[in-house]
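Quick illustration, no need to memorize.
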Amino acid sequence: MKKNKYIFLFASVLASPFFVSCNEDSIDKVNAPIAYEAIGGYESSDDVAAANLVTKFSFENSIADSKNGITGGVGTNVTYGNGIKGMAYKGSSSSFIAYNAVASSLVDVKSITVSMWINTNPHTGGAQSLFMLPKTTDFWGNIFSLIEGTSPATTMLVKNHVQKDVMPSIAWSGQFIEHGGTNVLTNMFGKWKHVVWTYSGASSTYSMYIDGQKLDLPASISKRYASDPLTGGVGYGDLANSNVSKFIIGGFQQHLGTPWGAPDGWMLNYTGMMDEFRIYNAALSDNEVVALFKLEKDNR
C-alpha cells in the first residue's frame, strides 16, 4: 500500500499547475512569431526617413493624411479596391480628392521625394493628374505628376513639375521634367508599380525610380541647371513653393474651382489605382528608396 501511495503522490505532482504552466510557456515559445529580417536597416516602411515624412495617404477606406500635413479632405466619387498594402484609392473619369489646408511642413520643402504605388491602364485624350500642389497665381501650380496618353499604348509618358524661383531672371514655372522620347517608361501598365521621384535642392539634381531601380537618366533630365553646368551654369537650388492653396489627388487644380477657371479638355482625372502615397521633405537615398519599395511590397 505504501508503494502505491507514493506512486499516486508522484503522479499528482506531475499534474500540478506548476508543471502545466511550464508546458504552456514552452508552447508559447514554439509558436512565437519569428521576427522579420530588416531590409536596408529598417523593420517597417514607416521607419524609412521617418523624420522627413510630411504626408502619407494609405487609403484604408479613408482619404485622411495620417501625418496631418494635408487636411480638410472631401472626396468626389471616391471608391476603394485591393491595394499593394491593404486598400487603395480607385480612380475614375470623375474621381478626385480636394483638400482645403496644407501645412507649412509641405509648403516650405526645399527638397522633395514623392513616392506612390500606381496600377493603371493606357488612356487617350489628354493628361491624367496623379496629384497637384496648387498655386493661385500660376496656371501650372507648384508641384505635380502627370501621366500623358501615349502611342504606342505600351509606353507611359510621365511629367513631373516643381516650382522654382532662384533669381529674378529664373522662374522654373510651367517647365516640366519629362520622361518621354528615349526616356519613356515601359512595362508600366496593368500591374502595381512603385514610382518614386526626388529632387535635391542642395545639388539641383532629379532622380526617378521604378520598383526600387534608379533610372539611368541623361544630364538634360537629372541636372536641373539654368545653363550647362560644365560651363559654369547655376543650379536651380531649393524649391520655392508660393501662393499655395489647397491640394488635390486625382485631378488638376482647375478641378477645384475658384480662383481657377474650368479645366481644359485635356485635363483628365486619374482613372487608375493609387496606394501608399508619401511626400518627404528630402531627397531619399538609393538605399532608402529600395528599402521603402521592398518593405511596402512585403506589406510592412
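The helical segments are 2-14, 17-31, 104-107, 219-222, 286-297.
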